[in-house]
Amino acid sequence: MKEHAAPEYWVLDGLEDTPQGTKARLERADGELVILPASVLPTHTREGDVLEVIPGPDGDVLRPARQETTRRREAAQERLNALNTADPAGEIDL
Fold it and tell me: For the region Disordered, what residue ranges are annotated (predicted)?
Protein backbone atom coordinates (compact mmCIF):
# COMPACT_ATOMS: atom_id res chain seq x y z
CA MET A 1 0.00 0.00 0.00
CA LYS A 2 1.35 3.44 -0.95
CA GLU A 3 1.85 5.90 1.90
CA HIS A 4 0.61 9.45 1.43
CA ALA A 5 3.07 12.18 2.28
CA ALA A 6 1.86 15.11 4.34
CA PRO A 7 0.73 17.94 2.10
CA GLU A 8 3.27 20.64 1.39
CA TYR A 9 1.99 24.17 1.90
CA TRP A 10 3.42 27.46 0.66
CA VAL A 11 2.20 30.91 1.73
CA LEU A 12 1.96 33.83 -0.68
CA ASP A 13 4.27 36.36 0.98
CA GLY A 14 3.85 39.07 -1.64
CA LEU A 15 3.76 40.17 -5.24
CA GLU A 16 6.42 42.27 -6.94
CA ASP A 17 6.28 44.11 -10.25
CA THR A 18 9.53 43.51 -12.11
CA PRO A 19 10.70 44.32 -15.64
CA GLN A 20 10.03 40.63 -16.42
CA GLY A 21 6.43 40.84 -15.14
CA THR A 22 4.76 40.32 -11.79
CA LYS A 23 6.52 37.81 -9.54
CA ALA A 24 5.08 35.93 -6.57
CA ARG A 25 7.16 35.43 -3.42
CA LEU A 26 6.08 32.16 -1.81
CA GLU A 27 7.35 31.03 1.59
CA ARG A 28 7.89 27.33 2.15
CA ALA A 29 7.47 25.66 5.56
CA ASP A 30 11.25 25.73 6.05
CA GLY A 31 11.28 29.52 5.56
CA GLU A 32 12.88 29.42 2.13
CA LEU A 33 11.40 31.81 -0.43
CA VAL A 34 10.43 30.60 -3.89
CA ILE A 35 10.00 33.21 -6.63
CA LEU A 36 7.61 32.28 -9.45
CA PRO A 37 5.69 34.17 -12.12
CA ALA A 38 2.40 35.38 -10.62
CA SER A 39 0.62 33.77 -13.57
CA VAL A 40 1.07 30.32 -11.94
CA LEU A 41 -1.08 31.36 -8.96
CA PRO A 42 -4.70 30.27 -8.76
CA THR A 43 -7.21 33.00 -9.58
CA HIS A 44 -8.10 35.32 -6.67
CA THR A 45 -5.03 34.39 -4.61
CA ARG A 46 -4.03 37.19 -2.24
CA GLU A 47 -1.16 37.82 0.13
CA GLY A 48 -1.26 35.52 3.14
CA ASP A 49 -3.17 32.76 1.34
CA VAL A 50 -1.92 29.21 1.85
CA LEU A 51 -1.42 27.11 -1.27
CA GLU A 52 -1.02 23.35 -1.41
CA VAL A 53 1.72 22.07 -3.68
CA ILE A 54 0.40 19.19 -5.79
CA PRO A 55 3.08 17.17 -7.60
CA GLY A 56 2.11 16.25 -11.13
CA PRO A 57 3.63 14.60 -14.18
CA ASP A 58 4.15 18.01 -15.84
CA GLY A 59 5.47 19.72 -12.71
CA ASP A 60 4.01 20.99 -9.48
CA VAL A 61 0.64 22.75 -9.37
CA LEU A 62 -0.51 25.21 -6.70
CA ARG A 63 -4.03 24.77 -5.37
CA PRO A 64 -5.80 27.02 -2.84
CA ALA A 65 -5.82 25.51 0.66
CA ARG A 66 -8.77 27.50 2.01
CA GLN A 67 -9.23 25.50 5.22
CA GLU A 68 -5.52 25.80 6.04
CA THR A 69 -5.60 29.53 5.28
CA THR A 70 -8.59 29.99 7.61
CA ARG A 71 -6.99 27.88 10.33
CA ARG A 72 -3.75 29.87 10.21
CA ARG A 73 -5.51 33.25 10.16
CA GLU A 74 -7.68 32.29 13.14
CA ALA A 75 -4.62 31.06 15.07
CA ALA A 76 -2.77 34.32 14.31
CA GLN A 77 -5.79 36.35 15.45
CA GLU A 78 -5.96 34.35 18.69
CA ARG A 79 -2.26 35.04 19.34
CA LEU A 80 -2.78 38.75 18.67
CA ASN A 81 -5.83 38.86 20.95
CA ALA A 82 -3.83 37.17 23.72
CA LEU A 83 -1.03 39.72 23.36
CA ASN A 84 -3.51 42.62 23.40
CA THR A 85 -5.28 41.39 26.55
CA ALA A 86 -1.94 40.95 28.36
CA ASP A 87 -1.27 44.71 28.01
CA PRO A 88 -3.26 46.86 30.47
CA ALA A 89 -3.80 49.44 27.71
CA GLY A 90 -5.24 46.70 25.47
CA GLU A 91 -2.95 47.53 22.57
CA ILE A 92 0.59 46.68 21.61
CA ASP A 93 2.92 49.68 21.33
CA LEU A 94 5.41 49.38 18.50
Answer: 50-94
